[in-house]
Design brief:
The protein has 71 residues and is mostly helical. It has four helices and no strands. The radius of gyration is 12 Å and the shape is globular. It starts with 6 loop residues before the first helix and ends with a helix.
Length: 71
């Protein structure tokens, strides 16, 4: 994901590429996190709770962070 991209475009591309994979949720969550821009990863580094460990929680949290970033 590029710095100026919107999270919905990233989510669509991520789902497109991972739909046919049989990887477990933990690894997909890790891959999803690795593709995020540093401005979002930095927020996770500052949170006491760290980053979510489940993909649905990760995507929901990233959406909130992304919305705040673009406001």
């Amino acid at each position: 994901m590029n710095h100026n991209d919107h999270i919905m475009a990233y989510n669509i591309q991520f789902l497109k590429y991972t739909a046919k994979l049989s990887w477990d949720d933990a690894y997909l969550t890790h891959c999803y996190h690795c593709g995020l821009p540093n401005c979002i990863k930095d927020v996770f580094a500052q949170r006491k709770a760290g980053k979510p460990q489940e993909s649905q929680s990760m995507k929901a949290t990233v959406q909130i962070i992304h919305n705040c970033f673009w406001e």
